[in-house]
Amino acid sequence: MKPTAQALARAAAAFAALGEPTRLAVMHRLAHEGPQGTVRLADHAGVSRQAITKHLEALEAAGLVRGARDGRTRVWSVQPRRLDDVQRLLGVISAQWDDALERLRAAVEED
Predict the structure, then answer these.
(1) Which residues, 6 or more positions from 56, have their beta carbon under 8 angstroms from its beta carbon?
(2) Which structural domain, as residue segments, surrounds residue 73?
(3) Using N-to-C axis directions, what is the helix angle for 38-45 and 21-33, rounded to 10°?
(4) Residue 96 is part of a domain; what is its CATH number?
(5) What band does 31 get if pLDDT is binned at 50, 70 and 90?
(6) What is the number of structural domains in the chain?
(7) Which of 12, 13, 16, 35 could form a disulfide with 77 if both were Cys (CB 3.0 to 4.6 A apart)?
(8) Cα gap 35→29, rounded to integer Å
(9) What is the C-alpha to C-alpha distance for residues 73 and 53, in angstroms, rounded to an integer?
(10) What is the pLDDT of residues 53-88, one digit of tens each?
(11) What pTM value is reported for the model?
(12) Closest by alpha carbon to 17, among 77, 58, 78?
């Protein structure tokens, strides 16, 4: 199964967002500890609220998190569907590599 151009573009956006260490740490916290407010995330990340907001907006643009207002606080949560999409794409890529390596092994053994 060949991934569509749209699926590759969405995955590229997710990988780009997760390629930044603070964003990856925020995703890890949200995935393991559940939804959290911006202030709590900033306190644990060791960066300003403004900086964490920018990181969260980048993660949201990539479809990895969603922010919802709860009074004056914005609570952020992981969007598991996007992570499932990325995981499926990685599975396809992994299978393609396995197939290519098997063909290479067979060609080398043939000689």
Answers:
(1) 26, 38, 41, 65, 67, 76
(2) 5-110
(3) 120
(4) 1.10.10.10
(5) very high
(6) 1
(7) 35
(8) 9
(9) 12
(10) 999 999 999 999 999 998 998 999 999 998 888 888
(11) 0.80
(12) 58
